[in-house]
Amino acid sequence: MGREYRLDELAEASGVRARTLRFYRERGLLQAPRREGRIAWYNDDHLARVRTVAALVERGHTLGGIAELIAAFESGRDVRGAAELLGLPGALAKPWSEETPVRLTPEELATRFGGGTEEVSAENLADALDIGYVAVEGEEFVHVSQRLLDVSGELVKKGVPLAVVLAAGREVRTHADALAELFTGIVRKHLLADVLDSPADLTPEQVARITDTIERLRPMAKQVLEAEVTMAMDRRVQAELEEWQREAEEG
């Protein structure tokens, strides 16, 4: 059973006021304590539950949603359904992508690439659809990213053919997917292996741990990728300059 706590001791260990703990217990968020006469005894399982509830509250989950999640686990509902109650799928996907989709008419799309029809051709549109940059909704196009749209349009206006921009985008996507696979593999193997290797036995605390780990690592992944790309550009530009200078001297 490990250590046992009176209510005030549980409050001190968890950092949650005793009054709040009573409220959690009344709402079914905290398991019933072991009774010994008039004394209520709580253990480390109660402490873990309190910390989980407090963490979920801090991240914006309602007490009703947390109670439903706990009830799902205790009633044997499947882990996927319980994870959805917690908001785990959203935590995995939403914050990674900060892109703003853009809705465009065919005329507006053509204008983004210099106003001509030679760039917004059937072939280029098919490529953009295949890569996933553009989708069709009714009579409009939806570009997946304002930033990618702006950069693509600027490159075309400066003289880079749209077909070349799309081909480069496809190649970048391949490398980005590989980097994402590498990073998530490291996280899974070294930080979450004990949890993810047995998903059927996930507890609310473990689901919260998965969410919390990913939220903490998200900005780190962005920093690593940005640093590596900028340093790679420095190396590539320096190599190009040295090659240009060498050719100039030889010529």
TrEMBL record:
<feature type="domain" description="HTH merR-type">
    <location>
        <begin position="4"/>
        <end position="72"/>
    </location>
</feature>
<dbReference type="Pfam" id="PF13411">
    <property type="entry name" value="MerR_1"/>
</dbReference>
<dbReference type="InterPro" id="IPR009061">
    <property type="entry name" value="DNA-bd_dom_put_sf"/>
</dbReference>
<dbReference type="InterPro" id="IPR000551">
    <property type="entry name" value="MerR-type_HTH_dom"/>
</dbReference>
<keyword id="KW-0238">DNA-binding</keyword>
<dbReference type="GO" id="GO:0003700">
    <property type="term" value="F:DNA-binding transcription factor activity"/>
</dbReference>
<dbReference type="InterPro" id="IPR047057">
    <property type="entry name" value="MerR_fam"/>
</dbReference>
<protein>
    <submittedName>
        <fullName>MerR family transcriptional regulator</fullName>
    </submittedName>
</protein>
<dbReference type="GO" id="GO:0003677">
    <property type="term" value="F:DNA binding"/>
</dbReference>
